[in-house]
Amino acid sequence: MNHDQTPYDALGTLFAKILEPVALYRAIYDERGEFQDVVYIDVNSAYEQVMDIRREELIGRPFREIWSEKEREWQDIILQVATTGIYARYEGPSYDTGKYLHAIAFSPTRSVVAVIFLDMTDWKRAEEALLEKEVLLTEYRQELRTLAAGLSLAEERTRREIAVKLHDRVGYSLVSLLSRLRALSEKHSPDDIAPAIEEVEGLLSDTRSLTLEISSPLLYEVGLEAALASLGDRMLKPHGISVDFRECGPQANISMEIRILMYQMAQELLLNVIKHAGAKNVILRVQRGNKRVRLLVEDDGVGFSSNTPKHWGKWGGMGLFSIREKLHSVGGEVRVFSEKGKGSTVAIVAPLAFEGGTER
Q1: pTM of whole model > 0.70?
Q2: Cα torsion for 207, 208, 210, 213, to the nearest 10°?
Q3: 23 has which bridge partners?
Q4: By the 8 A CB rule, do 282 and 271 touch?
Q5: Which among 286, 304, 306, 324 could bridge 336 via Cys, Cβ 3.0 to 4.6 Å?
Q6: How many C-beta atoms lie closer than 10 Å to residue 140's C-beta?
Q7: How confident is the model over 10-58, as pLDDT tens digits?
Q8: How many angstroms separate the CA atoms of 216 and 207, rounded?
Q9: 333-338 and 344-351: which strand pairing?
Q10: Which residues contact 141 (CB under 8 A, 6 or more apart)?
């Protein structure tokens, strides 16, 4: 193309075929080569429709007279391409038109810039709406995690109340009845009283076991470590699984909420070992730090592929997925190390306390 050929002639075909808004601009320089203005040469009909302005209002007029100062960045892009001759892209809002535009600018001839605009307004609004939904979804998920953790704590409080009443009322009544029966046995034939004593002793034993199952008093009266050691013995040994409990680290002030959650999670993990692991030996470790406490449950069972997400919910019940969600709500985390045929290790890490919790 020579400089006498108008840009419109060169781009006439493009103007006729393209459905996107297109505008041609000329950069005006003074005799010293310094930039003076950007002037409209031509626009196509799509440009008129999208920008909501008639062609007659644009041709030959400077860009700055048409659009407000807020649109200055678009003029700067046109000037940049006119000066360098290098193709450029720009994306942003057009405040005067209320559109969100993506511009592709190039220079078909010296000082002339053609800009193809892509109207991305609907896409941008959809993207912003999606981001808002994602923020809401994240907030809802966090709220759900917090509610799930709160529900577990509320459930534990109820279990604790039932266990205490069972121990204080039924347990004491049975102990009193047993004492009276033993006193009666001294005055009557032992053969007459022995069956009743044996039955009451059985009821008393069952009541103590049920109290432990509902809510461990060790967790409240002694601490997390004693409760976990007792839990391991009580759950695993009846199934022929040996358990080795270990603890290390400085004494830590673990809040009651964290103690309850970790105890419940240990209960679930040990249940999973009994049901699915096929293990013969389990190691329970409590590692205390200055700010966090870690519980490790190691078994020598069949193991599984810890890289497969579906395994996180495979064990049923609360499951590893639920454990992860509840830990997330208190700022903790769970990690699984496992390989088929080589056992599993589940590491639960939690803060000593979380906001809103109570210190021991």
Answers
A1: no
A2: 170
A3: 43, 115
A4: no
A5: 306
A6: 10
A7: 556 666 667 889 999 999 988 888 888 999 999 998 999 999 999 999 9
A8: 13
A9: antiparallel
A10: none
Q: For residues 82 and 172, what is the distance between their CA atoms, to the nearest angstrom?
A: 95
Residue type, 239: H
The residues pairing with 74 across neighbouring beta strands, listed in sequence order, are: none
How far, in Å, CA of 279 to CA of 268, rounded?
15
3-state secondary structure string, 266-311? HHHHHHHHHHHHCCCEEEEEEEECCCEEEEEEEECCCCCCCCCHHH
Distance of alpha carbon 336 from alpha carbon 358, whole angstroms: 29
Q: Concatenated DSSP letters for 78-127? A: HHHHHHH---EEEEEEETTTTEEEEEEEEEEETTEEEEEEEE-HHHHHHH
CA quadruple 178, 182, 183, 189: dihedral, nearest 10: 140
Give CA angle at 173 (170, 175), nearest 5°: 110
Tokens found for residue 202: 């059985």
